[in-house]
């Protein structure tokens, strides 16, 4: 065995998930350890057994066992053990040191007050187990890096999770949802391509002259005509140009880069080889979250179906040994989150000298303070061709001007900037409603909203991981079938949560910003911003989980003037930019908060176009600080 081989690898199936199982359900309330979410270890949506360090089922000590709460129970003394016995992120004490060892919990320990205690008050009866302690009580300590677990492979217990095998069935590979009534309206959106000598746009997929198998796969995917970002992006990439592309959420950016890249590889007869100890991919795609990179991989796999080109995905939270075995089966298109990607490269299993394309999806996120160091590390890794010798492609729906300037470091000087609509603008197919709330009224107002959404898929965004558990618990107690996704959940749980949401088993998904970008889930009709994010770009991405591919959607935003005043002005701007009604009271809040039209929260500069033209929204320019100084990811998020 190589050093990366793990002793045991267990393939697990995602079964046994019940959002309200008899075994305690969310915020389990067992054995008189307190009531409801005031104790009992927080959100607990699963009834399946855990996996111990060796990949074995571990009924007695896992996060979901009787003894161990997901984050430790609000019970007395130390005892039991957590998942691997160590804090997953070395943050013992944050989420569940003590009794029962929460998955994230620290080393045993005792004391503290257990239970889930919203907003202070008395803790779980006997204390001792950590658990959630309410927003007012503590500020989460951060891990060493915003990126979270996926990026620091040595930071926690050995991960043994292996995702379930993918179906080879064509109906599953090519499953898709229909484009909506507004798909043709994409053609009315203004497109601006700046830079020297851009190639002519295509109007049809035929003009893209895709090879036969790729063409067949495009048809099987239900694509009849290209979206604007595809019409312009495909010929730009095919012409060998570097590209920074901006187009609204849900408008087909993924295919805009995958199709021309795959076309080139197929035309050149690139074929995966499993006889090489070191794999040398032609393409590297990076994205900020596990779920998103997995989705991009699934798209690549779909378009490459039946050809010799082999995409592979690598991300944190799954067994490294498994991941490397997958890579060594042959790898042309390597999709990864930055941490796991750098880890695998560092292990010498990936050679970079053949890289022709480097793609940064959600590029503004990949270059903000959370990931920029990793991106610089990636491009300066041994063997990686310099930017002059590779094609670098960046895609997002938002590009703050400061990030654009930084991005230029990674691109050739003659890169093209493609803007479909207003850079950073919200998708106009999403109806946006802003509701004035107080922090005390939010939960009731959420219930009111959910009464109107019924069984339609709804994503509820909150700001912190514990808030996600808290709200999910609350909704389940109110008999709303809910699941949650955030960075403190195990990968299996995250996948299970998304699966339950996709299937409609849990039509409500409570999420942190980890699910804000890129996720393309069928039939998400509603997004609720229960907590507003601290920057407007995040808002634009969050509401973009609905209203995709010409379909319509609705986003309700809870606005608490006490807490959200800073966002008022940019929210007004986004609403009016998307021809949405701006409530009078919000305009007043925006004016009162900042007095002038010149305010821009956080000092960000929202570019409406290529920053090389000098940018616009100049009125907003109060300061222009480097992204790292702006706290772009300064909230309690948990990226890969
Ligand atoms: N030309 C097309 N015809 C029909 N469907 C398409 C076409 N292009 C893309 N789609 C579908 O539209 C959906 C949204 O595409 P995609 O996820 O690439 O959007 P995006 O622009 O990357 O969004 P985000 O900004 O949220 O990441 C996907 O389901 C995709 O398969």
Automatic annotation (TrEMBL):
Residues 234-417 form the Helicase ATP-binding domain. GO terms for biological process: meiotic cell cycle. Residues 442-590 form the Helicase C-terminal domain. The keyword Thylakoid does not apply. A motif (Q motif) lies at residues 203-231. Residues 203-231 form the DEAD-box RNA helicase Q domain. Residues 99-132 have a biased composition (Gly residues). Belongs to the DEAD box helicase family. DDX4/VASA subfamily. This is RNA helicase.
């Amino acid at each position: 065995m190589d050093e990366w081989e793990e002793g045991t690898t267990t393939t697990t199936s995602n079964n046994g998930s019940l959002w309200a199982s008899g075994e305690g359900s969310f915020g389990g309330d067992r054995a008189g350890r307190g009531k409801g979410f005031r104790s009992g270890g927080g959100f607990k949506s699963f009834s399946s057994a855990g996996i111990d360090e060796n990949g074995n089922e571990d009924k007695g000590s896992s996060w979901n066992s009787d003894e161990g709460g997901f984050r430790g129970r609000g019970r007395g003394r130390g005892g039991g053990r957590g998942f691997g016995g160590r804090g997953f992120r070395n943050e013992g004490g944050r989420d569940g040191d003590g009794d029962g060892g929460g998955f994230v919990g620290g080393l045993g320990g005792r004391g503290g007050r257990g239970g889930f205690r919203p907003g202070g008050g008395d803790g779980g009866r006997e204390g001792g187990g950590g658990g959630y302690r309410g927003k007012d009580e503590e500020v989460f300590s951060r891990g060493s890096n915003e990126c979270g677990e996926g990026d620091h492979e040595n930071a926690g217990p050995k991960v043994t999770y292996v995702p379930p095998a993918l179906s080879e069935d064509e109906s599953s590979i090519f499953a898709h949802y229909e484009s909506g009534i507004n798909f043709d309206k994409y053609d009315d959106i203004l497109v601006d391509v700046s830079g020297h000598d851009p190639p002519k746009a295509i109007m049809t997929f035929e003009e893209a002259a895709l090879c036969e198998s790729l063409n067949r796969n495009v048809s099987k995917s239900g694509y009849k005509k290209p979206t604007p970002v595809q019409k312009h992006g495909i010929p730009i990439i095919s012409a060998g140009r570097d590209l920074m592309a901006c187009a609204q959420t849900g408008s087909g950016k993924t295919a805009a880069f995958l199709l021309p890249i795959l076309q080139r590889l197929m035309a050149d007869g690139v074929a995966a080889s499993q006889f090489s100890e070191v794999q040398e991919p032609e393409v590297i795609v990076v994205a900020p979250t596990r779920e998103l990179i997995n989705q991009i991989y699934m798209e690549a796999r779909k378009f490459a179906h039946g050809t010799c080109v082999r995409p592979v995905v690598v991300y944190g939270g799954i067994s490294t040994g498994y991941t490397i075995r997958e890579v060594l089966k042959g790898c042309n298109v390597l999709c990864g989150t930055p941490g796991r990607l750098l880890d695998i490269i560092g292990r010498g299993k990936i050679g970079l000298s053949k890289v022709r394309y480097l793609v940064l999806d959600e590029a503004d996120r990949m270059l903000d303070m959370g990931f920029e160091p990793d991106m610089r590390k990636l491009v300066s890794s041994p063997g990686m061709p310099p930017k002059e010798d590779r094609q670098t492609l960046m895609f997002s729906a938002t590009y703050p001007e400061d990030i654009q300037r930084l991005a230029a470091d990674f691109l050739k000087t003659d890169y093209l900037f493609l803007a479909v609509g207003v850079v950073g603008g919200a998708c106009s197919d999403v109806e946006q409603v802003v509701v004035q709330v107080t922090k005390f009224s939010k939960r009731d107002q959420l219930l009111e909203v959910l009464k109107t959404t019924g069984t339609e898929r709804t994503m509820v965004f909150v700001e912190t991981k514990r808030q996600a558990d808290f709200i999910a618990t609350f909704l389940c107690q109110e008999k709303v079938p809910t699941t949650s996704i955030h960075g403190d959940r195990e990968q299996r749980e995250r996948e299970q949560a998304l699966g339950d949401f996709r299937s409609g088993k849990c039509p409500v998904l409570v999420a942190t910003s980890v699910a804000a970008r890129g996720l393309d889930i069928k039939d998400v009709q509603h997004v609720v911003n229960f907590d507003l994010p601290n920057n407007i770009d995040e808002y634009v991405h969050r509401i973009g989980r609905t209203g995709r591919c010409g379909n319509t959607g609705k986003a309700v935003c809870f606005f608490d003037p006490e807490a959200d005043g800073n966002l008022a002005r940019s929210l007004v701007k986004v609403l009016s930019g998307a021809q949405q009604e701006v409530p009078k009271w919000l305009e007043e809040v925006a004016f009162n908060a900042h007095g002038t039209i010149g305010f821009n929260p956080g000092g960000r500069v929202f570019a409406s176009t290529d920053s090389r033209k000098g940018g616009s929204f100049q009125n907003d320019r109060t300061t222009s600080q480097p992204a790292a100084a702006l706290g772009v990811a300064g909230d309690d998020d948990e990226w890969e």
